[in-house]
Amino acid sequence: MAQSCPDDASARPTDQPGRVPLPLLTADITPGRQGLTCRYRCGNACAHEAPNLSDNEYFGDVLARSLSRRGVLRAGAVLTVAAGAGTALAGTAAASTTSSSVPAAAGVRLPRGLDYEPVPVNTADAVVVPPGYESNVVIRWGDPVVPGAPEFDFENQTAEAQAGQFGYNNDFCGLVPLRDGSGSRGGERYLMFNNHEYTIEPLMFRGYDEENPTDEQIRIGVEAHGLSVLVVERDRNSGRMTAVLNEKYNRRYTGTAEFVLDGPAAGSDLLKTSADSSGTVVLGTLNNCAGGVTPWGTFLSGEENFNQYFANAAAVTDATAAERVQRYGITEEASGRKWERLDPRFDLAQEPNEPNRFGWIVEVDPYDPKAPPMKHTALGRFKHEGATIQLAHDGRAVAYMGDDERFDYVYKFVSDEKMMRGESRRAREHNRTLLTKGTLYVAKFTGDSPAAEIDGTGTLPADGAFDGSGEWIPLARGDESFVEGMTAAEVYVFTRLAGDKVGATKMDRPEDVEPNPKTGHVYLALTNNTDRGKADADRTAPADEANPRVENKHGHVIELIETKGDHTGTTFGWSILLVCGDPDDPSTYFGGYDKSQVSPITSPDNVAFDSHGNLWVATDSGQALGINDGLYGVSLDGPTRGRTTLFASVPVGAECCGPVVTDEFVLISPQHPGDLDDASPESPASNWPDGPGTQPRPSVVNIWKVGKNGRPGRIGQ
Ligand code: FEO
Ligand code: CA
Ligand code: CA
Fold first, then answer.
1. Quick one: which of 362, 365, 430, 434 has its CA closest to 401?
2. Structure pTM?
């Protein structure tokens, strides 16, 4: 069943001054994403009952240390920017410089790095950037990644070609510097890593028959998933960034690539199949959503809605096994893409353990193409949004992670070993083992206000903040389980059930969970959960102080501060920074900042930080507000705390993914452009990025400021 749709966004004005009127308060929508995305990204997860059947307690009125840090109400930026069409290249626009906006009220200093003219919310079929900024497309779906791969030909796709080309629906994007002396004069090179989360076959193939995909369409779909590693070069003079075909580094890991399972559950009977009696080698990575760059220079990637690729869970009749399959939401019937017709490992009737080999955090060493890509069992198995690393004071690695499902949990992992500094082979090999041994925890949040004051409307409790304390509950360390009735291997492979047993807090779809490198504070994007407190939902949970809004269409952002700044510890404090939505909606909260002075924002998903410590939030479901998704700068400190300003918006039907924010450039990944329910190759809803008459192509976009003499300037300054 498809989600119901927001009203016709394409009909909304894009050029009127002031804030675009938002349909939020009247539209009957949940949660705002189009049906194609819902079906193909997450197997219509939101149309099914949430899989968490546990009766975990909900916190009440336990008094705890308040971490309220509300900012002082001040006037800030006035968002009366007139949308412009200063086209820099096909499908790209800069907001007009003729705006009547002012950056901030007199006397209020904008944080360093956030001084740009906010882009007005809009519905343009373009990437829209602030006045004075430019952008270029770095790489698109189908562009060659591996040297020798053919140029993209939409009308004549093959699996063989796709295996060497940039995959579909790139989500996470990460960069590490490449200092090997290659590159042109004035150029700087990076290794770029991209997740190709999922495919949308009805937009990829003309006349696609969902009930009868061809074998080649299935094979193309498998190869369009996975990961890309490639060299990119940025021209310091022009600001442009381009992909480089490189024999040594460029590679794809698709749905058929070999991955090694490591850590304490590797080799467990739960991970063995008829094709892999060792339980240690898996073919493929699927539905890789967000990720992270480790301090030791590798990339992490989260396998998210892996459940949708598997069929026939009804064949699992053993009660314990059936409970496990249900908890991960695997369908009882045929899968959406019908891969099981071509490869029996996707059929639970034939390979009941194959799904256990997905849902992990993957690690790839971009500098060492010979190093096998890993799946780390020590970090647990769930619908991993991603994982990001904070080095503790003692050098141990702490991974923060979210399980993106309604009413699921937030986790962290603390390594046993410390990171070895330096770039020697010995250091690299040691550091690649950091995520194999350690302790896995799940989070329990406790509010400090009386439960009666959390009424589900978003009204702040009497102490003026949604805030409280929290506990990291240990689940397992190495071969030792801390969960009654579960072995360590069971904890790692069925981590959701372990979280259920220890009373973890049911959250509103935890997406990115990421520490701010400047402060160590951790930010949790809770994207939305329209079943929260819903009267007619079979599986629901009431509003609580960490998830304070019923039928939470627009999500919120939590700031988590580890006790004494110790990331290896087991207690923390927290407070809600943003309750998202239309600022005119009384249920919203912007860190205490003046709500008339912020950009509307919905469904926070991916987060990033700039070198100044500002938060950047990319969104996924702008349609819930009748606007395109985008990347927002968010002030965290001082009188502007909670000020959200739109920096870039993505084309019609797209979600904004993969933000990378540096002093010189910003990368975003407009994912699934043109993904509207009535779209098809015959009638595309978007022609981005190549312009009229072309098919939409998910891409990576580079944005920079045009500074003095036309050379790149500093972002947000
Ligand atoms: Fe793939 Fe949780 O977004
Ligand atoms: Ca409170
Ligand atoms: Ca995401």
1. 362
2. 0.91
